[in-house]
From TrEMBL:
Species name: Oscillatoriales cyanobacterium SpSt-402
PROSITE patterns linked: HTH_HXLR
Identification of the protein by name: Transcriptional regulator
Gene3D superfamilies: Winged helix-like DNA-binding domain superfamily/Winged helix DNA-binding domain
Keywords of this entry: DNA-binding, Transcription, Transcription regulation
Length: 121
């Protein structure tokens, strides 16, 4: 089955494909929280992300129409990121994920700890 057909047949796969990536969910969540962020603010909010990875994830989210990149003609250059109208439709999804994760925090932490331990073996 072609990838295009798979997404038509499974809306969950299609939605997750747009939001998946190591940092994309967190980028979307931060933009949902703060509304507008500059590149350096992302780096402060997510100190373990590399410059290359942040640039790549932002570019992919922009290409997919989930975020808007606005560049201002000033010196030094000023670039801001925000959720697009399309990206804002993910707000209830993001809120639901946050609510679920907080409601199940002990279980989630235990599972992630086990995964980290098995990855380091």
């Amino acid at each position: 089955m072609a990838a295009k057909e798979r997404y038509v047949m499974c809306p969950v796969d299609a939605a997750i494909a747009l939001m998946s990536g190591k940092w994309k969910p967190r980028i979307l969540w931060k933009l949902h929280l703060y509304k507008v962020l500059r590149y350096s603010e992302f780096q402060r909010e997510m100190p373990s992300i590399t410059h290359k990875m942040l640039a790549q994830q932002l570019r992919e989210l922009e290409n997919d129409g989930l975020i808007i990149r606005t560049m201002y003609p000033v010196m030094p250059p000023k670039v801001e990121y925000r959720l697009s109208d399309f990206g804002q439709t993910l707000a209830p999804v993001i809120d639901s994920l946050v609510t679920w994760s907080r409601a199940h925090e002990p279980e989630v932490r235990a599972i992630l700890k086990r995964k980290d331990e098995s990855d380091s073996v």
